[in-house]
Amino acid sequence: MCRWLGYYGNPIEPKELIYDTRHSLIEQSRRAAPDSAIANGDGFGLGWYGKGRDAALYRSESPAWGDRNLREIAGVVQSGLFLAHVRAATGTPVQQTNCHPFRYRNWIFVHNGFVDRWAQLRRDLLFAVRPDLFDNVQGSTDSEVLFHLALTFGLEEEPLPALERMAGYVEAAGHAAGSEHPLQMTVGVADGERLYAVRYASGPVVNTLYVSSEVDALRRLYPEDERWQHFSEDSRAVVSEPLTDLPGLWHEVPPSTALVLQKGPDVEQPFRPQPPS
């Protein structure tokens, strides 16, 4: 399985989450799961927002733990909204165009999971992508097609309903092809102003996703710990795996749940795929 993280809050150096914690994304990239010795070494990516409207990307097909340029960038950039991803390929080539995040205008997208029977469904799902978006599909992964289907179904206008329509469309196509559990996904999506996250699967096995506690609660829990002082009140992180073992820091996102991290109150709501009419 892949691993990813998203951050929303005041500007910080991405290395604080990618490198500096005990179970950082870099440490997670050395393995596919806590009980597995197989690495997430099939590429990585970092997408972040700075002064402009659109996100910047740095992606490579090399293992994240050995890339000096990633360490340099993550220690110099200051960003209040970013997504990072380490990849474990599931049948598609190890190449830069298959590395997350994927980008369209001001939108970036990361995914952990798979579309069951992808080789069988790929052509039909690609043909469902809106024609003006088709040239933006540069790789061969199911993840990139999920992103462009979400765009096709209205991601720019109404993000969470569009993701529900995307999931419903993929499930319907999978069921028609004979798949019992067509979709497994945690996704992170950002538009420069908000971070959206979803945990969902068609079957009973659902990849993990966690969100950090509110900063005020962490300051009350650990008043002597100075690391929380430079985070703003609305700072939150969403991660595939907890980055530290600190009690009270991470809360598991329930299956079939969507989150919106934003200025002001965050949103948590049920995620219900909508089949095509």
TrEMBL record:
PANTHER family: GLUTAMINE AMIDOTRANSFERASE DUG3-RELATED. The keyword Endoplasmic reticulum does not apply. Residues 2-264 form the Glutamine amidotransferase type-2 domain. Gene3D superfamilies: Glutamine Phosphoribosylpyrophosphate, subunit 1, domain 1. InterPro entries: EgtC-like, Gamma-glu_amide_hydrolase, GATase_2_dom, Ntn_hydrolases_N. The keyword Cell cycle does not apply. It comes from Pseudonocardia halophobica. This is Class II glutamine amidotransferase. It holds the Pfam family GATase_4. It comes from the Bacteria. Keywords: Glutamine amidotransferase.
